[in-house]
Amino acid sequence: MQSSAHRVQEAAAFPMPRTAIHHVPIEGSTAQWIDRQVAGGISLRSASLTIHNGKSLVTDVSFDLAPGECMAVVGPNGAGKSSLLKLLSGRNCPSTGSVHLRGEAVHAMAPLDRARRIALVSQHAEPDRRLRVRDYVELGRVPHRGRVSWDASRAIVDDAVQRVGLRHLVDRQVGELSGGERQRAAIARALCQQPELLLLDEPTNHLDPRARADVLDLAHDLGCMVIAVLHDLDRISSFAHRVAVMAAGKLVACGPAAEALAPSIVQSVFNMDCFPVVNPATGRSIIVFDTPSK
């Protein structure tokens, strides 16, 4: 059993993330999108995914995420994180169990409807480097084509590039952007889908430390539900309201960072130590992850 002092120390090391910012909507369909954010969340009930050779990639996973909340999905390589995202996106139908968004089975949605409600930013996305940033971001409006006016779509694109901080780069080619800027452009493209759920597959991969922090801060403040597969354990406490820890396709822990990333869980799943320290410059308690010496 942990002592009360130990539990308080762990909680201090994982401060609650900032409250998600609900931006003031512009006129038209964006207002309707913001309204949907308070109508319901994502729910998994005993969801499993087994492939044709009988191998289980995801086993009996259950959790809920409320509108406006952010979740980090963590675990070692091969833990089933990307497979879980495929279930959440509707790309794969659960072998058993269910995945529902606002009470509707995700895999049963019409593809176009699903594209309007769920956006995925893949780590493997490689847009044509010759595309202008604006043209790349505008691709997110494809699922809404014919549903709103050209002026309304243009306003949505302008709002998206403004929110991710790329307004000054809209006429650049994608190939001229830095890694962090390309990730921002990919998120802006996803925002143009006006999703209820945004899925990010290792969004900080190959980025420098400052860019990693910026991308996660941006994702946290979008206002919609965000589920991100992450390897940066030290960045999780400022991003995620909840953390899902996976190992061998199973959900090991799910809850606030202080609980889901308790030292015993980190040691068992990642074979690492973790402990809180105080930043001498700010006085803020942070968590440090370290590989134990042999």
Describe the structure.
The chain has 294 residues and is α/β, with parallel strands linked by helices. The chain has a single domain, classed as P-loop containing nucleotide triphosphate hydrolases (Rossmann fold, 3-Layer(aba) Sandwich), CATH 3.40.50. It is built from eleven helices and twelve strands. The chain has helices at 4-13, 29-36, 81-89, 111-117, 133-138, 150-163, 179-191, 209-220, 236-239, 257-260, 263-270, and strands at residues 42-50, 56-65, 70-74, 96-101, 104-105, 118-121, 197-201, 225-229, 242-247, 250-255, 273-278, 285-290. It has a six-stranded mixed beta sheet, sandwiched between helices. Strands 2-1-4-5 form a four-stranded antiparallel beta sheet, covered by helices on one side. It has a two-stranded antiparallel sheet with strand order 11-12.
